[in-house]
Amino acid sequence: MKASGSRTKNIITEYGVGVESECGKLDIVLMHRPGRELLRLNKDNLHDLLYDAVPNINETHQSHDFFSQYLRDHGTQVLYLTDLLCETLTFSDKARDTLINGIVAHSYFSDSNHQEAAMVLQQWLLERTPEQLTEDVIAGVSCTQDELGTSEHAQTLLKANDPTNQFVIPPLPNLLFMRDGFSIIEKNVFIWEMAKPARRNEPLLLRVIFQYHPYLSTSGLKIVEWEKITDNDEFPTIEGGDVAYLGQGILLIGCSERTNRTGIEELACTGLFRQVIAVIIPPRRTYMHLDTILSSVGKHAFTLHGLLAETMEVFTVENQNMNDKTLLKPKWVSYGCNVRQALRKILDDPKLTFYDAEDEETSIHEQQQCRHNVVVIDDHHIMTYGGSDPEKGIVTQMARNGACQVGQVPPQGLSEGGGGVHCMTNAIRRRAK
Q1: Fewer beta carbons within 10 angstroms: which end of the chain, N or C?
Q2: Among the residues of 213-272, which ranges form H helices?
Q3: CA neighbor of 81 nearest in space, from 197, 219, 174
Q4: Is residue 204 pLDDT above 50, yes or no?
């Protein structure tokens, strides 16, 4: 890990910030190259940490490095979360305090029975260097003397801990899927509320970066407090894998296992979008986000998993709040369950293309292997996982007759967490198309 602040400054200065589409030229992307947090995974905690299998970290690094190098080779600047967080903690004492307070509030010691231990954990964290603190909050800290040390603070934490609690600070192996914790839309930053407890520290890290990073905090980006607008009883959740900004004020969003109706209504009520289009997705892990079944390929094209193409209802979510004195719930207007027809009508684009595998059986396999999950480098130049069926697979269909240029990432070490290449990237700067 290297806090290369001057490089970050140079990239932001040269390219600027802001996301104007899902398919324009990708100039700057944020990624996370996984580290020791993956070594925390075992057969006993896989389910809680949202993984399907334990990845081989050497394969993870090889595949991830291939991915990031392909992006660089095609003109995309890659920033890493660990660098940005370390730069932020080095620059700002306020960032350090905010992060530590949040980590303690989310820890095992946050309840009233562990007040002394919570204070001790705070002191222990305050004694860490920016590099150590960055590692602690991402890789986690186990409840062992090997990791806590032999200080008086460490001994207090070891005594206060319950034997069933493995971590003083839980690891964040899902940071690999950088897409989900935030979205930049135009110059607005949305820090999302995530659905699963294993990921609740991720938005904290991201908020600290965007609020206090020496260059991002002064770049013109603005954090939107989207989740505090309506008086819904249900807690709003949104994850970035469900969010696709199509440009010109049009937002496409999945209502899924991870993003709920309340979250979508809160977002519509910000008044920041000309149109919000919601797709109702079956609440299953295999379809956990919109981008697992539908992703942008170019200005007039998406991938779409055919098995669900005529079963998912599509709505526009219309904000009815015309002034500050009213607080009406948004109106959901149905366009039926044929996704192709609905999007062509709503977007007024009768030639909108949808790519899929050649037959249903192959499409199911491709979707399970996250190949409908694609990231656009530039219009119709995309990346997805390799290994597609060479005759019937979705990669072949997209590349046919030169329609798309498709870069293929080795899935080994990456797909075990249930996400694809779109999931592993988040645009800091993407142009309009």
Answers
A1: N
A2: 261-268
A3: 174
A4: yes
- Cα–Cα distance for residue pair 255/7, rounded to 1 Å: 38
Condensed to tens digits (0 to 9), the pLDDT of residues 95-144 reads 999 999 999 999 999 887 788 999 999 999 999 999 999 999 999 999 99
Q: Which residues of 376-395 are buried (b: 16+ CB within 10 A; e: fewer)?
A: bbbbbbbbbbbbbbeebbbb
End-to-end CA distance of the chain: 35
Q: 230: domain range?
A: 60-80+174-430
Q: Residue 3: pLDDT above 60?
A: no
Does 323 map to a domain? yes
User: Residue 197: which CATH number?
Assistant: 3.75.10.10
Residue 96 lies in a domain: no
- d(C-alpha 417, C-alpha 405), whole Å: 26
What are all long-range contacts of 399-404, with beta carbons under 8 Å and residues at least 24 apart?
404/297, 404/298, 404/301, 404/355, 404/380
Phi, psi of 328 (to 5 degrees): -95, 145
Tell me the C-alpha distance between 222 and 188, whole Å. Answer: 5
pLDDT in tens, 321-375: 766 555 678 999 999 999 999 999 999 999 999 999 999 999 999 999 999 999 9
- The pLDDT mean for the chain works out to 96
Single-letter amino acid code for the residue at 97 = D
The three-point CA angle 411-412-417 to 5° equals 75
Distance, in Å, from the CA atom of 89 to the CA atom of 83, rounded to the nearest integer, reads 10
Q: Which of 358, 409, 402, 361 is nearest to 380 (CA)?
A: 402
What HEC string does 417-433 produce? Answer: HCCCCCCCCEEEEECCC
The span from the CA of 170 to the CA of 37, in Å, is 9
In eight-state DSSP terms, residue 316 is: E
- Give the total number of structural domains in the chain: 1
Output the pTM of the full model.
0.96
Q: If we measure between CA atoms, which residue out of 123, 85, 87 comes closest to residue 104?
A: 123
Residue percentage of the chain with pLDDT more than 90: 91
Task: Name the β-bridge partners of 406.
Answer: 382
Place of tokens 């149905």: 334
Are the C-beta atoms of 271 and 319 separated by less than 8 Å? yes
Q: Is 45 contained in some domain?
A: no
Say how far apart CA 201 and CA 178 lie, in whole Å.
Answer: 13
